[in-house]
């Protein structure tokens, strides 16, 4: 696992991730797949945030 794949989440973000995982599992998604999906969403969200910050800092 490389450094870019690690997520730094606040406690609130962790709680929200757990809730999303639990919702997916309640819909029949396996725990591993639910974790993978939520982690992927969080990584994409953080990537977008980094890009926005980069663009704003270039202004």
Automatic annotation (TrEMBL):
Highest taxon, organism lineage: Bacteria
Similarity comment: family membership: Belongs to the UPF0181 family.
HAMAP family: UPF0181
Protein name: UPF0181 protein A6A20_00175
């Amino acid at each position: 696992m490389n450094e870019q794949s690690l997520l730094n989440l606040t406690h609130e973000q962790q709680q929200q991730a757990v809730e999303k995982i639990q919702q997916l599992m309640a819909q029949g998604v396996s725990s591993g797949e639910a974790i993978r999906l939520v982690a992927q969403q969080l990584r994409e969200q953080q990537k977008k945030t980094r890009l926005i910050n980069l663009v704003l800092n270039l202004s």
